[in-house]
Design a protein that fits this description.
Helix content: 40-55%
Largest sheet: 7 strands, antiparallel
Structural class: alpha+beta
Keywords: Cell inner membrane, Cell membrane, Cellulose biosynthesis, GTP-binding, Magnesium, Membrane, Metal-binding, Nucleotide-binding, Transferase, Transmembrane, Transmembrane helix
GO molecular function: diguanylate cyclase activity; GTP binding; metal ion binding
Strand content: 15-25%
Distance between the termini: 61 Å
Subunit structure: Homodimer.
Cofactor: Mg(2+)
Shape: rod-shaped
Strand order of the largest sheet: 1-2-4-3-7-6-5
Function: Catalyzes the synthesis of cyclic-di-GMP (c-di-GMP) via the condensation of 2 GTP molecules. Cyclic-di-GMP is a second messenger which controls cell surface-associated traits in bacteria. Involved in the regulation of cellulose production.
Bound molecules: guanosine-5'-triphosphate
Radius of gyration: 55 Å
Length: 566
Amino acid sequence: MAVSGSVSVFGNAIQRVISRFKNPQKVVNLCFIVVFLFSTVLTWREAVVLEGAYVSSQRNSLDNVATLLDRQLQHNIDNLLFYRNSMLYALQSPISTDKTRKTLADFDALRTQPYWQLRLDLNRSLPMNGVSDEFVNNSPLLDRDEQTIHTELSSALELSYIMRLSHQTQTLPRRMFYASRSGFFLTSTPPPNDPQIVALYYRLVAQPYFSSQSPANNPDRALKWTHTFNPESTTGQIITAAIPLDYNGRWYGVLALDYPIDSLHTFLQQAHNEDHEGTVLLYDNELNPIATSAQSLPLHPMFTAPQLAQIASAVTAAKAGDEGELRMDSRFITWAKLNNYDGLLIKVHTLEEGVQGEFGRISIVLSVLWMLSTLMLFASWVVIRRLVNNMFSLQQTLTWRANYDTLTRLYNRGAFFELARKLSQECKQQAQPFSVIQMDLDLFKSINDKYGHSSGDKVLAHAAAMLSDAFRQGDVAGRVGGEEFCIVLPDTSLEEATKVAERIRVRINSKELLLKQGTTVRISASFGVSSAFEFDDYDFERLQSHADHRLYKAKQEGRNRVCHTD
Ligand SMILES: Nc1nc2c(ncn2[C@@H]2O[C@H](COP(=O)(O)OP(=O)(O)OP(=O)(O)O)[C@@H](O)[C@H]2O)c(=O)[nH]1
């Protein structure tokens, strides 16, 4: 009982709210559109936050690799600078010992040989490897200066002790060397004493990292990175960091570190090990791929020329250490410019990897939730819309039934009296004539008795239709009793109202009505007409009473007639 009570209270409340709006369906639609938009905006907001987190995670992942690589490179560069300082100190104040004297004497003895090696103390130092005076003289870049060669050799000897001490096991394996313009070199991976020395020295000074360190090519005397092709390397490529050695205005040579590509591959694989999603690639400053965290460099280029141009334009304005991201076809690209290498790291995250990853799973759940809530919203919209439609049409039916007579479709007594009173008062205010016609079907009881009640109903509906067709717009008719009708005619005199009544009478009486197959009936009606002007009274009830008296008179006088006098 309590439940049904609260349901009906709720129903009434909804009905009251709905009745305030002319078109409740529109209100329901609007409400659901607002809820739909609200839930979509919320989901979209979640998606934006998720996207931000995804971008940050991609950046962090690349940032970790970039930091590790930068830290390692920084360590190596620090070593390189330390070696250069050692050489500079040695050039400033060369040490003269038995060993240096022996080294210089050996050099003087061997300097014309096509190749030579000074193996002073191999347990504590690295061998010095050199080429002939002739070789040096044939190259415009090289210069065996008699004034400085001995000082340089003794300084290089000191460096060879330090280099020998440096730890061999590195996180990022590399080769350190000093290539002198005076025709000798020192390397952490010394060659045997054979003709190979000439080829090695030639390759060292022929590579771009050497010539790029000349005062003309490197006026700032800064560290430079180069990416060169080395046919002896398994991958054919090598990355080199080089700095010039200058003293007293003379360019002595180049101190350099080079990294085999394999070591960079291994480094990237280890650095990117924790993050299983995506591939990290190291590119040089001309956007050539160098190394990858994948098994090997891709056989086909990862990017088309326009895509590379897009990356290049994003990176051009960036400073060292900057990072950014780009969307390319179905891939998400994150890039980071390294602090200690003139190139950049690029992380490629494909859509497939993204979908399988954590963010992909969350995005799918979010999309499914949004679709489910939208589906449920749509289902409830259909139900509520139907409910509201039903309530609205029910309300309209009830409202109609409260005011109209269902049989004749004319106003019922209550609604008619209310309207008639209103119209009479309006006419009174505007001093217009106002008339009332009272109509009653003749001998209607006999039709009921003879043909049945349903036939009687048919006659009543027919008479009402005749009535409705006959009066003018502005006139109002109602069923005020069983077979009694009343018509009010605003702005109509008694004479005009009498004519209207006469017209209705003729129409009703002129047509045979088919009651059932083979049975027709001709009906008639009597009319009483009254007017406000003749009584100087606009009270509707009194005017109707006058009209009713005259109707009675018409009945008395033989029915089927109009009476407008007492
Ligand atoms: N079929 C039908 N009959 C109705 C309805 N309302 C009233 N009546 C009948 O209408 C009849 C009216 O009869 P009376 O008032 O005696 O008048 P009459 O037979 O029309 O005779 P006069 O008015 O003197 O011409 C009654 O028999 C009522 O039962 C209705 O809605 N349907």
